[in-house]
């Protein structure tokens, strides 16, 4: 056990985590040259296309150092703020981290956020400056920033380049000498933390765990602490690029187990795995439950596919524990799910994965955040869906979630950022210089305001030089109203939105204008209205497709033409009473792209 090291790589998005992991794997010949490729641990098409890591990936590396063989369990983690739950789960399975900082960009918001996660878990932190071979590398400045941030010495910082392989031996030496070996009692009852799981259509659910005490043998009976269900360990092993079978996995190791579980609800990430013959009495304190930030409805395009979609959602939740969902019905869209996501990128990825991996075509409704409504009778209602907001006459007050946003940028863009954040109802809390060329701004602002387009606007206002991170700080009173969209006086519940009263008129007007361009013309005039309660705040008309019924009249009396037009008018009126307007899927997505 003294020769095992469990560590993960954390950094801001795009600072080179996956590239460094590739070099560590390649330099130890962990996988053959034929299997080697860029982003080797990212096995999803989406990850390769977008160039981001979505899932944490574990792999075991063997490394000889000073005449001894060491087993290094590496977990590569995502950098985007929407996948920070993956990072927290990876940290729970490790004793140390490599904190990666890009030599050309310096410390960014997510670097600091992930660092705090590692400090909370009492992990050994090894700072690594990556991309030192690039022309724009600012090694002395970035070194000073790191020393200021974590209080280490300059000689503790490893200089490396994931692309060219510079300093890789120094990284390995730091891992072996500075990260502590796992603690744990090899002869104690089995105690393993489940940090991930994946569904395999042939073998059932494959569970990934880190053993904190005892060991697990092939063929023994095991059980999960929270469900108390018992299973037979059909296969156990360690994680190389694929899965490598073993007869026994020992204390301190990261491994997998296949028990033939088919039901997704039986496996809970963060649970403790133990043996039936000699069970442990204490569960491991895993990581806290996921806090969803953004909620949206997901509905099958074909209502008959609802059960199939439920099945796919459960399998996807195994692979992505930060996805939460519950049943929901909509008059416009039928049966579906109200899903909780960590952010808009997370929502987009889930939708893409449903379409690619499970062949499910879905409609996603307007995303919104969770509010708390207090009624006159003292009831407290958590509102995830505009339809569940109580009537204004019964409502005493509504609270909305607030966040603390941390923005790091160049001093030239302070004015732009101030204007943007204040227009989003933000309040400046503090402003400080990390270095002469880097400034940190901290705002408190409503989560509702950053859900849609805040990140894109921030990037365009600062030419891509700002980094952004946020965390929730609780709920505060707000003047929130429900805005409904009416088509032909019929409410389309899937387009309803919860919005601050001061923004509702502008939002309603933009949405009506956008819908006018997206909805097809009908045989009758269609009125698109935005309403708060009974008050209409915006309206657009889609004129009817009209046939020229007077074309056959050559000259003659005007009364003949009038008669034909009146007859057509009556027909249109009758059609309008029974006609219904088809809403295309683009209309539901239009709300996200109102400024385009």
Structure description:
It is a single chain. By secondary structure, the protein is of the alpha+beta class. Helices cover 27% and strands 33% of the residues. The chain has an 8-stranded antiparallel sheet with strand order 11-10-16-7-8-15-12-13. Strand 10 and strand 11 (230-232) form a beta hairpin.
Question: What descriptors fit this protein?
Answer:
596 residues, alpha+beta, Elongation Factor Tu (Ef-tu), domain 3, Alpha-Beta Plaits, eight-stranded antiparallel beta sheet, 33% strand
Largest sheet, in brief, is: 8 strands, antiparallel
Task: Tell me the span between the first and last alpha carbons.
Answer: 57 Å
The CATH homologous superfamily of the largest domain is termed P-loop containing nucleotide triphosphate hydrolases
Proportion of residues in β-strands: 25-35%
Strand line-up of the largest beta sheet: 11-10-16-7-8-15-12-13
Share of residues in helices: 25-40%
Number-wise, the strands total: 31
Class from helix and strand fractions: alpha+beta
Q: Mean pLDDT score, rounded?
A: 79
Count of discrete domains: 5
Per CATH, what is the topology of the largest domain?
Rossmann fold
Main CATH class of the largest domain: Alpha Beta
Report the radius of gyration as a whole number of Å: 28 Å
Low-confidence stretches: none
Shape: globular
Q: If classified by CATH, what would the architecture of the largest domain be? A: 3-Layer(aba) Sandwich
């Amino acid at each position: 056990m003294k020769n095992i090291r469990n560590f993960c790589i954390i950094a801001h998005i795009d600072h080179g985590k996956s590239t460094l992991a590739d070099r560590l794997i390649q330099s130890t010949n962990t996988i053959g040259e034929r299997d080697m490729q860029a982003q080797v641990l990212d096995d999803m098409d989406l990850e390769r296309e977008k160039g981001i890591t979505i899932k944490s990936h574990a792999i075991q590396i063997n490394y000889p150092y000073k005449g001894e063989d060491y087993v290094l369990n590496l977990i590569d983690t995502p950098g985007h703020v929407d996948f920070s739950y993956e990072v927290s789960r990876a940290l729970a399975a490790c004793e140390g981290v490599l904190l990666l900082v890009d030599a050309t960009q310096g410390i960014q918001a997510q670097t600091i956020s992930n660092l705090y996660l590692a400090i909370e878990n009492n992990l050994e932190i090894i700072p690594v400056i990556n991309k030192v071979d690039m022309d724009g590398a600012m090694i002395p400045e970035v070194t000073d920033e790191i020393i200021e941030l974590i209080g280490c010495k300059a000689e503790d910082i490893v200089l490396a380049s994931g692309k060219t392989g510079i300093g890789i031996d120094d990284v390995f030496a730091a891992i072996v000498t500075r990260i502590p070996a796992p603690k744990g009692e090899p002869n104690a009852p089995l105690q393993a933390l489940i940090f991930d799981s994946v569904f395999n259509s042939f073998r059932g659910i494959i569970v990934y765990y880190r053993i904190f005490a005892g060991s697990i043998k092939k063929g023994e009976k095991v059980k999960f602490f929270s469900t108390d269900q018992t299973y037979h360990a059909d296969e156990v092993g360690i994680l190389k690029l694929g899965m490598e079978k073993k007869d026994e996995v020992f204390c301190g190791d990261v491994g997998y187990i296949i028990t033939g579980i088919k039901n997704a609800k039986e496996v809970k990430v963060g649970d403790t795995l133990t043996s039936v013959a000699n069970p442990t009495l204490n569960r491991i304190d895993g990581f806290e439950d996921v806090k969803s930030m953004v909620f949206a409805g997901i509905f099958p395009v074909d209502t008959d596919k609802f059960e199939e979609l439920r099945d796919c959602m459960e399998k996807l939740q195994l692979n992505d524990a930060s996805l939460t969902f519950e049943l929901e019905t909509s008059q416009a869209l039928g049966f579906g799910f109200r899903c909780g996501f960590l952010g808009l990128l997370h929502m987009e990825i889930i939708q893409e994965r449903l379409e690619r991996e499970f062949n499910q075509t879905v409609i996603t409704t307007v995303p919104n955040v969770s509010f708390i409504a207090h009624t006159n009778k003292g009831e407290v209602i958590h509102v995830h869906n505009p339809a569940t907001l109580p009537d204004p006459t019964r409502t005493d007050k509504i609270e909305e979630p607030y966040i603390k946003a941390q923005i790091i940028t160049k001093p030239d863009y302070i004015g732009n950022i101030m204007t943007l954040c204040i227009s989003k109802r933000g309040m400046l809390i503090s402003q400080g210089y990390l270095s002469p060329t880097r400034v940190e701004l901290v705002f408190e602002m409503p989560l509702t305001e950053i859900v849609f387009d805040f990140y894109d606007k921030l990037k365009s206002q600062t030419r891509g030089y700002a980094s952004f991170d946020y965390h929730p700080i609780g709920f505060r009173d707000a003047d929130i109203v429900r805005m409904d969209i009416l088509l032909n006086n019929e409410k389309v519940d899937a387009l309803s939105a919860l919005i601050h009263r001061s923004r509702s008129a502008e939002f309603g007007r933009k949405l009506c204008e956008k819908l006018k361009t997206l909805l097809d013309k009908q045989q009758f005039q269609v009125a698109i209205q935005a309403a708060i309660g009974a008050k209409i705040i915006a309206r657009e008309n889609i004129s009817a497709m009209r046939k020229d019924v007077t074309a056959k009249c050559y000259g003659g009396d005007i009364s003949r033409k009038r008669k034909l037009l009146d007859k057509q008018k009556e027909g249109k009126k009758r059609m309008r009473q029974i006609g219904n307007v088809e809403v295309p899927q683009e209309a539901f997505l239009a709300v996200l792209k109102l400024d385009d």
